[in-house]
TrEMBL record:
Biased composition (Low complexity): 82-96
Keyword check for Oxidoreductase: no
Gene Ontology terms describing biological process: cellular response to heat
Coiled coil: none
Official protein name in the record: P-loop containing nucleoside triphosphate hydrolase protein
SUPFAM superfamilies, alphabetized: P-loop containing nucleoside triphosphate hydrolases
Alphabetized InterPro entries for the sequence: AAA+_ATPase, ATPase_AAA_core, ClpA/B, ClpA_ClpB, P-loop_NTPase
Domain AAA+ ATPase: residue ranges: 431-577
One Pfam assignment: AAA_2
Keyword Manganese: no
Length: 729
């Protein structure tokens, strides 16, 4: 590590640039190495450039692999050359020809051409309260904790605010773009975490720091802390946040660090602050979505939720070649789709990043069936119009458009629900929104309600109507009857959310009785409800009521069997006509089961259609992902609720589509997707248990991660422990 001169003045930098024509970065380097002696810096730079011109005229020797020794450092200014001791300790083998833009030609003292040598990294370390010092550090791969630091990436210190780090220099002084994505190993530099993420810093006077918040996110900052930090500056100085949120940290867009941390809540926070979910890096441009998919390889975590989040926020699906996910229920070859299939896609500028075979292989390895389904679904979904966005934004409901990206199937249900919400918000109805969710069990009714509450940040109350027969059991007795002072869960929820937007989900509503229907007429009609504890009126005009029922299952299933075009998303006009016809028939059936007064207060009927065979494959994969997450947890041998003996396991799923198709043979339409949970337990988890118990190793905490592979052999699902190769003696 070498101390150089102080930061040069702008006049000195411009003088060197004018005399030599070199880029700004090289001018600063030579000035610092010569302690701001302008004439000496110019002399050395010109001599350096001349030697490179002479070198290019010479015929280069064949490429070889060699070790860089301490004597081979003459390419740098004298004051920046490594000492023999440091160069010796840092020597390492480098290829003589490489796409690495950090490599520069080198010549020996005899003037003979030789192989390139990797240029030491110049990183700017800025201690708090001191001037910047430029330090030359050896180039090597480093590992900080469990994070990898790629070539020429030491633990990153804060940037000095310039963009000089974006370009490296050839020896003739011309700029070379270091953002060569073809040579990037998809690992981000490790940022130094801030001492605190509170607004204003430790002393309360610091301004917004994109570096600090990205570093905090990279090191696992909680979403609530990130939101507090960004929200503070969004309110106090929104232009500063908007202008910086898409800036670069250590040469990478800030959103890459956020996505790299694999926390979908933080991704949403950044996007709401103006973060660009279609950010790219390098040339050819690697899209943020592609990085999110392949990132799972290096962080050893599932990134399925991150991919769905990016798509739901507007990430373009057309940056991924369609051959990777159409059809989504087909296994991808380990080397990726055949080149003849990709020719047209790879000629598209947005997909040129997939041209290298190593990228296609990595994409094929990391792109699971659920992610392929999300990409396929995204390519079919209609984007919201400008007016729809305007109405939703006024009601703080923009995430309503994200709901379809987190469900399996049920595009008809999400479309009709979105349409109902838009009408409700546009006309500012004084009555609550009352929606009937109808369809077979296990087809996503409860899941849709939960997603709606999560995405819109609404409180959700679920009442199980199978355990209530009288209205007092659902709402509680009125004062002065015994027990009135305690109320009921639903009564107390409505009172606590008076004049607030919230969701009440009444599950198995067909189990309710006439007195419950009558009790709901007033709340459904004018949005008023009487608190049973004190008889005060509660304003529930903003309450969203969802009545989930299986009473209309037969009608829905029969209609779909007779009208297969209802599943055709390509023919939207025909599909919309059939959906309108189905909802009318559902309304007629609802009247016959429930009372006409109750039916007259329903805002919309939302059918949940049967799953296709391809969608059931994705449903099976849902439970495989849950199993993968469960066994990845560390082993805990402490007796009690925290005991977890099956852990420290990394599951690798090969040919996931084939595995899921075998599992769907046990799919029961009457039970829906949840019938596949047992299939995964019986045909995957049980095999994993047996393989895990077959080893003679003891179960203990702190042991290394074990790899297990799930694959198909002879039409059967197999689970095998992957034994790591023995280390050489």
């Amino acid at each position: 590590m070498y101390k150089l001169g102080p930061e040069p003045s702008e006049n000195a930098i411009h003088a060197v640039i004018a005399a030599t024509g070199c880029p700004r970065t090289r001018a600063k380097i030579y000035l610092k190495t010569n302690h701001n002696d302008i004439e000496r810096a110019i002399t050395q730079l010109k001599a350096h450039q001349k030697s490179i011109v002479d070198l290019k005229k010479a015929k280069p020797e064949p490429a070889t692999l060699r070790t860089v020794g301490p004597e081979e450092a003459s390419d740098f200014p004298p004051s920046a050359q490594p000492s023999p001791s440091l160069a010796s300790s840092a020597s390492h083998a480098v290829p003589s020809k490489s796409g690495n833009p950090h490599q520069i030609p080198h010549h020996t003292s005899a003037g003979d051409p030789a192989e390139p040598v990797t240029e030491p990294t110049l990183s700017l370390n800025t201690p708090s309260g001191s001037e910047s010092n430029l330090e030359v550090e050896e180039t090597e791969r480093q590992s900080v904790g469990s994070r990898h630091v790629g070539p020429n990436m030491a633990v990153a210190s804060k940037d000095d605010g310039s963009n000089d780090s974006q370009n490296d220099m050839q020896n003739d002084g011309t700029a070379v773009n270091v953002k060569d994505s073809l040579g990037w190993d998809l690992r981000l530099p490790v940022l130094r975490p801030p001492s605190t993420l509170q607004p204003g810093g430790a002393d309360g006077s610091a301004g917004f720091s994109l570096y600090d918040v990205c570093a905090a996110v990279q090191h696992g900052a909680l979403p609530e802390d990130v939101k507090t930090y960004i929200t503070h500056f969004t309110y106090t100085n929104p232009q500063i946040v908007r202008s910086q949120i898409n800036g670069e940290i250590e040469g990478f867009p800030a959103m890459f660090f956020v996505v790299g941390a694999n926390n979908d809540a933080n991704i949403r926070i950044f996007e709401q602050a103006g973060g660009n979910v279609n950010a790219t890096w390098g040339e050819p441009a690697i899209p943020l979505l592609g990085f999110a998919i392949m990132n799972s390889k290096y962080i050893e975590q599932e990134t399925t939720s991150t991919v769905a989040t990016l798509l739901s926020l507007g990430a373009e699906d057309n940056v991924i070649p369609g051959a990777f996910y159409k059809p989504y229920d087909k296994d991808i070859p380990s080397e990726g789709p055949k080149e003849e299939v990709l020719i047209e896609d790879l000629s598209n500028n947005q997909m040129r990043w997939c041209q290298p075979s190593r990228i296609r292989e990595l994409l094929a390895e990391t792109l699971n069936i659920t992610q392929r389904y999300h990409l396929h679904r995204s390519s079919k979904l209609a984007r919201p119009t400008g007016r729809q966005k305007d109405v939703a934004a006024r009601h703080n409901s923009m995430d309503l458009f994200a709901v379809p990206y987190f469900l399996i199937g049920q595009s008809a249900a999400t479309e009709l629900l979105t349409k109902s919400f838009m009408h409700y918000m546009l006309r500012r109805q004084k009555q609550p929104l009352v929606v009937v969710f109808a369809g077979p069990s296990g087809h996503g009714k409860t899941e849709l309600a939960r997603r709606l509450g999560t995405l819109l940040s609404l409180d959700l109350h679920i009442s199980d109507c199978t355990i209530v027969t009288r209205e007092t059991e659902l709402f509680g007795p009125r004062k002065p009857y015994v027990g009135a002072e305690e109320g009921s869960p639903l009564n107390n929820f409505l009172a606590a959310n008076s004049r607030k937007k919230c969701i009440v989900f009444l599950d198995e509503f067909e189990k309710t009785t006439q007195d419950i229907w009558n009790a709901l007429l007033v709340p459904f009609d004018n949005g008023e409800y009487q608190d049973r504890r004190n008889l005060k009126m509660v304003d529930c005009k903003d309450t969203i009521w969802i009545l989930a029922t299986n009473a209309l299952d037969k009608r829905i299933v029969e209609f779909c069997e007779n009208n297969q075009a209802i599943f055709d998303e390509e023919n939207r006009p025909k599909r919309e006509d059939l959906l309108e016809e189905l909802t009318c028939e559902m309304k007629d059936d609802f009247i016959s089961v429930f009372s006409p007064p109750l039916t007259g207060r329903i805002s919309a009927f939302v059918p949940f259609l049967p799953f296709s065979s391809s969608e059931t494959c994705v449903g099976a994969h849902k439970y495989i992902l849950e199993l993968t997450k469960e066994v990845r947890r560390p082993v805990c041998t402490t007796p009690g609720p925290q005991e977890h003996l099956l852990g420290n396991i990394r599951l690798k799923v090969r040919s996931d589509a084939s595995i899921c198709k075998i599992l769907t043979k046990e799919y029961d339409p009457a039970l829906g997707i949840r019938s596949l949970r047992k299939a995964v337990t019986d045909r995957v988890a049980s095999l994993l248990d047996s393989e895990y118990l077959a080893t003679h190793d003891v179960i203990a905490e702190g042991l290394p991660i074990e790899d297990y592979s799930i694959f198909v052999a002879n039409g059967r699902i197999k689970v095998k422990r992957m034994i790591p190769p023995a280390e050489p003696i």
